[in-house]
Design a protein that fits this description.
The complex is a heterodimer of chains A (370) and B (96). Chain A contains two helices and 28 strands. Chain A has 370 residues and is mainly β. Chain A has a four-stranded antiparallel sheet with strand order 3-2-1-28, with no helix packed on it. A four-stranded antiparallel sheet of chain A has the order 4-5-6-7, with no helix packed on it. Chain A has a four-stranded antiparallel sheet with strand order 8-9-10-11. The longest helix of chain A is centred in the middle third of the chain and has 4 residues. The radius of gyration of chain A is 19 Å and the shape is globular. Chain B has 96 residues and is α+β, with helices and mostly antiparallel strands. Chain B has a single domain, classed as Ubiquitin-like (UB roll) (Roll), CATH 3.10.20. In chain B, 19% of the residues lie in helices and 24% in strands. A five-stranded mixed sheet of chain B has the order 2-1-5-3-4, with helices on one face. Chain B is globular and about 35 Å long. At the A-B interface, loops of A face helix 2 of B.
């Protein structure tokens, strides 16, 4: 069968799957799957026969994990969802991240309240990863507006990076056995200490598989005019690390706002990174004119990409996991909005078109060519 | 001294019947709502997990009734059951 582009679109009312030939000429849509409840995390697992996974945050009956073995034509619940041990005292509120683990059926799952789980059997059973979930800092992490969520998991051999809002960036260098806060240079605007050891409101971390030491972070920015203790903290929102996340530095100069949620790296260039700056107070596009901003030099300079977007009266919000990029030769970006539009930016984000304009509010977008 | 048997029925809402082999009603012996839930956990762990979270608390949007009384208006999970009682699992009305 010829390759297709598959999009998993997690919404407030369930999971949708969109499919198109590699030309991306027309996307067909199916769904919603998962009892019409919120989906904050999805994974298109291409190890072996493709499998699609999605979280399903059922406000009535708790968390479920959905799995499809037919490219999203049908989904079934796995035998179990992550759950805290009975004597732990915490109860699962949401699943924010699903990622492929080391072995063929290994999965990793980031949850709310912030904790990490691992499955060795494709999601049918789960065990808590103690090194992160019972870290000495764990009971001191605080929820941000979206909840106390572990939203980012990045694997690089024995290194495991996780991002927590609000907890910061944690790094394991022993395959996930132990973790340490790794936030040097990551600012926080909502407490007296501008550079605490941990507790930052990290929004998303991204990288490129061929440059594992290089990481990009969308942090909670918007503190340039803060008048609290410690004074203003400009440009702490968009950051870069060149030492596997040990230290970070700002690359926000040139952006209209250092506040935003997603950050995405070009599949063929570790120097090319995309963000969507938002007004920190409203979390919508500056001036009501949507734009994705791209740097092709690792964050030294930025270019505004807006061809195809409305030029006014369009106050979109894009959440942390609602932007992704495919891996075709000339890749396309995709993002979903909290007002239910799914946009595609062809030619690396140069030309934007709205694929679907009336979906439920979108929480996450994942794309793969399978 | 052996306690007298307390045969009761648990009524399962349609949306959760997949967690208990499609049954709409389950017959079990339980002298209280708590022990009824414990029995559900033993026999149908997925059904139990849909009703209670990891801490054992009944989920916020799930209501348990004994016949026509909400357990919160009686003794909560310690509400005593008598032979013939029906425990109803009913999702709350909420949406948006």
């Amino acid at each position: 069968m010829s390759e297709r582009v598959i999009l998993c679109i997690g919404t407030r009312k369930g999971l949708f799957v969109a499919e198109a030939p590699k030309t991306r000429g027309r996307f067909s849509l199916r769904g919603p799957f998962g009892q019409g409840v919120a989906v904050y995390a999805a994974l298109i697992d291409r190890r072996g026969a493709p499998r699609l996974y999605a979280s399903s945050c059922n406000p009535f009956f708790g968390m479920k994990v959905l799995r499809s073995t037919d490219l999203g034509k049908t989904f079934k619940e796995t035998k179990a969802a992550p759950a805290f041990p009975k004597d732990d005292g915490r109860a699962l509120a949401n699943i924010w991240s699903l990622e492929a683990g080391q072995d063929k059926k290994d999965l990793l799952c980031g949850v709310e309240p912030a904790a990490l789980f691992r499955s060795a059997d494709g999601g049918d059973s789960w065990e808590m990863v103690d090194g992160l979930s019972n870290h000495a800092h764990a009971r001191k992490w605080q929820p941000g507006a979206g909840g106390l969520c572990l939203h980012t998991i990045r694997l690089d051999g024995d290194r495991v990076h996780v991002g927590i809002s609000t907890g910061g960036h944690y790094l394991s260098e022993d395959g996930g056995r132990t973790f340490a806060a790794s936030n040097t240079g990551v600012g926080a605007g909502f407490q007296p200490d501008p550079y605490p050891e941990f507790g930052q409101c990290v929004h998303k971390i991204a990288g490129h598989k061929d440059a594992p030491g290089r990481l990009y972070m969308q942090n909670h920015g918007g503190w340039a005019n803060w008048s609290g203790p410690g004074g203003p903290r400009p440009d702490i929102g968009v950051l870069r690390s060149d030492d596997y996340g040990k230290t970070w530095r700002s690359i926000a100069k040139g952006l209209p706002s250092d506040f935003g949620f997603p950050i995405v790296v070009h599949p063929h260039s570790a120097d090319t990174v995309y963000v969507m700056p938002l007004v920190p107070e409203t979390r919508t596009c500056p001036g009501g004119a949507p734009a994705v901003w791209r740097s092709e030099d690792g964050g030294s300079s930025w270019t505004r990409l807006a061809r195809g977007f409305p030029k006014r009266e369009t106050f979109l919000t894009v959440q942390r996991d609602a932007m992704d990029v495919d891996e075709l030769k000339s890749p396309a970006l995709y993002f979903g909005t909290t007002t239910g539009q799914l946009w595609m930016g062809s030619d690396g984000g140069e030309d934007w078109s709205c694929l679907f304009d009336s979906l439920p509010p979108i929480h996450c977008v994942k794309v793969a060519v399978v | 001294m052996e306690l007298p048997a307390t045969p009761v029925t648990v009524h399962v809402p349609g949306v959760l019947r997949g967690d208990c082999d499609g049954a709409s009603e389950l017959s079990l012996e339980a002298p209280s709502v708590r022990t009824a839930l414990e029995e559900l956990e033993r026999r149908y762990p997925a059904l139990y997990r849909s009703v209670c979270d990891e801490t054992g608390a009944v989920r916020r949007h799930v209501n348990l009734f004994v016949n026509t009384s909400h357990v919160r208006d009686r003794e909560g999970l310690d509400t005593a059951l008598v032979p013939g009682d029906v425990v109803w699992i009913i999702p709350a009305v909420s949406g948006g």
